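Final report, section 2: Outcomes. Of the targets proposed, Redoxin domain-containing protein is the one most frequently requested by collaborating groups, and we therefore present its record in full.
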Amino acid sequence: MLDEGDDAPEVTAPMATPEAARETDRGSYTSDDVSEFSLADALADGPVVLAFYPGVYSRTCTRELCELRDWKADLADLDAPLYGVSADTPWSLLAFVDEYDIQYPLVSGFNNDVIADFGVRREEGIVRGIANRAVFVVDPSGTVTYTWAATEPLTFPDTDAVEAAVAAAARE
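The predicted structure is given below as tokens.
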């Protein structure tokens, strides 16, 4: 897993946005509904929060993503976008965004290295390849300024600590 002070990797990956999820009927998504996420482009506007999670529609992840949805309003004042990242396909992410009214984009680690590049790819077991639960704050220069990783199931990041890290990264 990347540590504080490490340079974030160059990341380009498919992304499901709330706008695309609203504009197309669930079950009718095509590649035209999938956007491209570029970490470099996102960082042009300030710090970024990346929340890695194993997968949509699982009990713990659904709860976490909905908690982050509810918490995201606090980040709006800090002007830092939040992106969820999992190994799910962009189409399943679009359906999840639609069903749970997620108001932030979800990045697809399907068929790319974003999860491995951040060092949170599960390497063993029946579900190897999914992301371990982790949060990173990346400052505008591309430096990781905050990390958090779950050590037990049903644990979630301290959102106050993430907010403080975002505020600090924005000042740098």
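Residues 59-76 form the longest helix (18 residues).
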